[in-house]
């Protein structure tokens, strides 16, 4: 069984993305195949050099960088949305692959879950 | 409608009652699924959806009481109602065990809901034939 978790909202504005990450890490902890896909404003989760200390939140950059170590199979970002938000490849954290969002991609997964 | 084989559903609710339509839409779906002979394995409350399990919700008497309606449906059909522990504790939905652990002044979980971990949701993906999500949908 493979699951694709899709995060489509910008970081730090609400808790849905964070709780989406918890879902991904939980699947990985139970040895289930899981991939994270960031689309829309969600691609900003993958930006290097986040410093949310000023709003008393913890950066998720380290967790995301460590996602492959914890068993998350891949970190994917919609390439077109990266372009929209001016995210070039060297501004993205390591191990992110840019993909095209479409049926070909979604068909590879048994379950697709939007974070709240 | 003809069904060759009944489905088994897990229903995940991530939108709060009175802030979003999610709990009400999910309730309608659950009733329709049961009426059509399908099974519901469990309800899983996640994120803001945990507010469905508050025993303190007290809407005006001429408004629908979504938490109570959900409890009644779960009890009538013996469906487990699971509340994600991390989401619940953040938002002040607490059972007696967590009240003691965190030395809180009260507990407020509405029976038959119980608090458990995301492992229950992981198991749903393995066991149920469909996992259906009801989100708040406040974003464009």
The main pleated sheet of chain A reads as: 5 strands, parallel
* Fourth CATH level, the homologous superfamily of chain B: DsrEFH-like
Give the C-alpha Rg of chain B.
15 Å
Query: Which class do the helix and strand fractions of chain A yield?
Result: alpha/beta
Distance between the termini of chain B: 33 Å
Strand content of chain A: 15-25%
Average per-residue pLDDT of chain B, rounded, comes to 95
Distance between the termini of chain A: 21 Å
Organism (chain A): Marinobacter koreensis
Pfam families (chain A): DsrE
Protein name (chain A): DsrE family protein
Family (chain A): Belongs to the DsrF/TusC family.
Question: Keywords for this structure?
Answer:
heterodimer, A: 116 residues, alpha/beta, Hypothetical Protein Ychn, Chain: A, 5-stranded parallel β-sheet, 4 helices, 25% helix, 22% strand, globular, B: 140 residues, 5 helices, 5 strands
Can you offer a commentary on this structure?
The complex is a heterodimer of chains A (116) and B (140). The mean pLDDT of chain A is 93. Chain A starts with a strand and ends with a strand. Chain A is α/β, with parallel strands linked by helices and 116 residues long. Chain A has a single domain (2-47, 60-114), classed as DsrEFH-like (Hypothetical Protein Ychn, Chain: A), CATH 3.40.1260.10. A 5-stranded parallel beta sheet of chain A has the order 4-3-2-1-5. Chain A has helices spanning 16-29, 61-65, 79-84, 103-106, and strands at 2-7, 33-38, 74-78, 96-99, 111-114. In chain B, helix 1 packs parallel to helix 2. Chain B has helices spanning 22-35, 66-77, 85-90, 96-101, 119-127; strands at 8-13, 39-45, 81-84, 113-116, 130-134. Chain B is α/β, with parallel strands linked by helices. Chain B is built from 5 helices and 5 strands. The radius of gyration of chain B is 15 Å and the shape is globular. The mean pLDDT of chain B is 95. In chain B, strands 4-3-2-1-5 form a 5-stranded parallel beta sheet, sandwiched between helices. Chain B has a single domain, classed as DsrEFH-like (Hypothetical Protein Ychn, Chain: A, 3-Layer(aba) Sandwich), CATH 3.40.1260. In chain B, helix 1 (22-35) links the parallel strand 1 (8-13) and strand 2 (39-45). Classes of the chains: A alpha/beta (116), B alpha/beta (140). The A-B interface holds A 1, 3, 8-9, 15-16, 19, 22-23, 26-27, 30, 32, 111, 113-114, 116 and B 14-15, 46-49, 86-87, 90, 117-119, 121-122, 125-126, 131, 133, 135-136, 139. Chain B: Pfam families: DsrE (PF02635). Chain B: This is Sulfurtransferase complex subunit TusD.
